[in-house]
Amino acid sequence: MNVKRTFGTILTVLGIIGIIYAGYGFISHNNDTRALIVASIIGIIFFVSGIGLVKNTKDEV
C-alpha cells in the first residue's frame, strides 16, 4: 500500500471540494467574500499538492 499516493488522492479530492464550494459561493453571490477567497486558495493549494504527490510517487512492486 502506497501511503503517499493515497494521501495525494485525498488531498486532490479535498482541493476539488474546496474549489467547488468557493465557485458555488461566488455564483450564488454570497456576502462572506473573505471566507470564499480563503476556501478557494486552500482548495487550490490542496489540489496542486495532491496532484504533485500522485505524479511524483513511483509505484512499488
UniProtKB/TrEMBL annotation:
It comes from the Bacteria. The keyword Transmembrane applies. Keywords: Membrane, Transmembrane, Transmembrane helix. The chain crosses the membrane at residues 7-27, 33-54. The keyword Membrane applies. This is Uncharacterized protein. It comes from Pedobacter changchengzhani.
